[in-house]
């Protein structure tokens, strides 16, 4: 494992309150010395620019290896997800309690299908 990968020890979360709370209870929460957290709770009142800025910030951080994002939240920034092609941090779309997972929307699965010529 390279030093580049070893430094990426955090999981970031962008999602609804239930998802973020559950993952924080599981121990993924972290606040660094600059008071920056590795999670964002998104609800109907969350402005789109806040969501976009948080996604960009998380993708630029060197301590984050995985970004978990609720699929219904990812739909709000689908264009950004489709344009994101970095290996680290990896972006994984996950279901939420109120919104089932739809594999046809998943940006990672779309890329895999394109690689194998299934799309």
UniProtKB/TrEMBL annotation:
<dbReference type="InterPro" id="IPR036906">
    <property type="entry name" value="ATPase_V1_fsu_sf"/>
</dbReference>
<dbReference type="Pfam" id="PF01990">
    <property type="entry name" value="ATP-synt_F"/>
</dbReference>
<dbReference type="InterPro" id="IPR005772">
    <property type="entry name" value="ATPase_V1-cplx_fsu_euk"/>
</dbReference>
<protein>
    <recommendedName>
        <fullName>V-type proton ATPase subunit F</fullName>
    </recommendedName>
</protein>
<keyword id="KW-0926">Vacuole</keyword>
<comment type="function">
    <text>Subunit of the V1 complex of vacuolar(H+)-ATPase (V-ATPase), a multisubunit enzyme composed of a peripheral complex (V1) that hydrolyzes ATP and a membrane integral complex (V0) that translocates protons. V-ATPase is responsible for acidifying and maintaining the pH of intracellular compartments.</text>
</comment>
<keyword id="KW-0472">Membrane</keyword>
<dbReference type="InterPro" id="IPR008218">
    <property type="entry name" value="ATPase_V1-cplx_f_g_su"/>
</dbReference>
<keyword id="KW-0406">Ion transport</keyword>
<dbReference type="GO" id="GO:0000329">
    <property type="term" value="C:fungal-type vacuole membrane"/>
</dbReference>
<comment type="similarity">
    <text>Belongs to the V-ATPase F subunit family.</text>
</comment>
<keyword id="KW-0375">Hydrogen ion transport</keyword>
<keyword id="KW-0813">Transport</keyword>
<comment type="subunit">
    <text>V-ATPase is a heteromultimeric enzyme composed of a peripheral catalytic V1 complex (components A to H) attached to an integral membrane V0 proton pore complex (components: a, c, c', c'', d, e, f and VOA1).</text>
</comment>
<dbReference type="GO" id="GO:0046961">
    <property type="term" value="F:proton-transporting ATPase activity, rotational mechanism"/>
</dbReference>
<dbReference type="GO" id="GO:0033180">
    <property type="term" value="C:proton-transporting V-type ATPase, V1 domain"/>
</dbReference>
<comment type="subunit">
    <text>V-ATPase is a heteromultimeric enzyme made up of two complexes: the ATP-hydrolytic V1 complex and the proton translocation V0 complex.</text>
</comment>
